[in-house]
Amino acid sequence: MLSELEKQIIRELQSDIPLVPEPYRLIAERIGITEQELMDIITKMIDQGIIRRFGAALRHQDLGFIANAMVVWEVPETQIAEVGPKMAEFKEVTHCYQRPSQPGWPYTLFTVLHGMNSDECKEKAQKIANATGIHNYRLIFSTKELKKSSMQYFMD
Amino acid sequence: MQLDRIDKQILGLIQTNFPVVSRPYRLIAEKLGLEEAEVINRIHKLRQAGIIRRLGGLFDSRKVGYVGTLCAMKVPSQDIERVGGVIAEYPGITHNYLRDHEYNMWFTLLAESEQKIESILNDILSRTGITQVLNLPSQKVFKVRVKFDL
């Protein structure tokens, strides 16, 4: 469980780090601790993986990654432990998750592929299919972003 | 906004390991042979241009104590705007995309507990009248990569 102080720090760090020469001093003053205490806790949270990434979240569409394909793979339960890490090794794969199959929904592994265009994503998926022997898959392209925001924790 | 070499160097340095030191912008400036004020100024511009969506912490929702899921719904085309509007109201829904599949609306949902997830989903279904939904919580994470090569 996180302490009240840690939750307070999360509330601060989930918005923007101030663009002033001593940003941590400013945040620490708001919370009522010293700059050093704040930096120690942040470092600890990074080490513990509570903070997954500390830095700039980029709008990657602007950097030439136009197409974003979700690829869903029908992988038999018994092969997931072997195939999951194999798919994760591909550098084009940014996310790889196991999710439950459901009636009418046989897909158990989900990967996200970023490419310059949809054909490139298709080629990459084909390459992964050949390497893993999983040939029942579908590329599902996003056609419109309706909402994208950063999660706000502990705001209730 | 056109990124120059220095912008890219700065982005490369602050994407994953923003320095946790008293003068972080000065440290970045020293590494690149720049003035602290120029680094602050450039980051400010990158943020205003929307290239940097946010400069801060990205948290592991599980370690923070939240649970999450991915949901897909079949939404008739004439209802997309209305349903999208309802979904946008929930702060725990951070991403919602239309996708080219019969399950055409895909969103992620984070909440403090499984019960809360279920109650939000039920709330959405009853408010929108949508009946076909897949609830696909991740059972195992093989990879999450958030850094892009510049």
TrEMBL record, chain A:
<dbReference type="Pfam" id="PF17805">
    <property type="entry name" value="AsnC_trans_reg2"/>
</dbReference>
<dbReference type="InterPro" id="IPR036390">
    <property type="entry name" value="WH_DNA-bd_sf"/>
</dbReference>
<feature type="domain" description="Siroheme decarboxylase NirL-like HTH">
    <location>
        <begin position="6"/>
        <end position="52"/>
    </location>
</feature>
<dbReference type="InterPro" id="IPR040523">
    <property type="entry name" value="AsnC_trans_reg2"/>
</dbReference>
<feature type="domain" description="Siroheme decarboxylase AsnC-like ligand binding">
    <location>
        <begin position="63"/>
        <end position="147"/>
    </location>
</feature>
<comment type="similarity">
    <text>Belongs to the Ahb/Nir family.</text>
</comment>
<dbReference type="GO" id="GO:0016829">
    <property type="term" value="F:lyase activity"/>
</dbReference>
<dbReference type="InterPro" id="IPR050684">
    <property type="entry name" value="HTH-Siroheme_Decarb"/>
</dbReference>
<dbReference type="Pfam" id="PF22451">
    <property type="entry name" value="NirdL-like_HTH"/>
</dbReference>
<keyword id="KW-0456">Lyase</keyword>
<protein>
    <recommendedName>
        <fullName>siroheme decarboxylase</fullName>
        <ecNumber>4.1.1.111</ecNumber>
    </recommendedName>
</protein>
<comment type="pathway">
    <text>Porphyrin-containing compound metabolism.</text>
</comment>
<dbReference type="InterPro" id="IPR053953">
    <property type="entry name" value="NirdL-like_HTH"/>
</dbReference>
Automatic annotation (TrEMBL), chain B:
<protein>
    <recommendedName>
        <fullName>siroheme decarboxylase</fullName>
        <ecNumber>4.1.1.111</ecNumber>
    </recommendedName>
</protein>
<comment type="pathway">
    <text>Porphyrin-containing compound metabolism.</text>
</comment>
<dbReference type="GO" id="GO:0016829">
    <property type="term" value="F:lyase activity"/>
</dbReference>
<dbReference type="Pfam" id="PF22451">
    <property type="entry name" value="NirdL-like_HTH"/>
</dbReference>
<dbReference type="InterPro" id="IPR036388">
    <property type="entry name" value="WH-like_DNA-bd_sf"/>
</dbReference>
<dbReference type="InterPro" id="IPR053953">
    <property type="entry name" value="NirdL-like_HTH"/>
</dbReference>
<comment type="similarity">
    <text>Belongs to the Ahb/Nir family.</text>
</comment>
<feature type="domain" description="Siroheme decarboxylase NirL-like HTH">
    <location>
        <begin position="7"/>
        <end position="53"/>
    </location>
</feature>
<feature type="domain" description="Siroheme decarboxylase AsnC-like ligand binding">
    <location>
        <begin position="63"/>
        <end position="143"/>
    </location>
</feature>
<dbReference type="InterPro" id="IPR040523">
    <property type="entry name" value="AsnC_trans_reg2"/>
</dbReference>
<keyword id="KW-0456">Lyase</keyword>
<dbReference type="Pfam" id="PF17805">
    <property type="entry name" value="AsnC_trans_reg2"/>
</dbReference>
<dbReference type="InterPro" id="IPR050684">
    <property type="entry name" value="HTH-Siroheme_Decarb"/>
</dbReference>
<dbReference type="InterPro" id="IPR019888">
    <property type="entry name" value="Tscrpt_reg_AsnC-like"/>
</dbReference>
<dbReference type="InterPro" id="IPR036390">
    <property type="entry name" value="WH_DNA-bd_sf"/>
</dbReference>
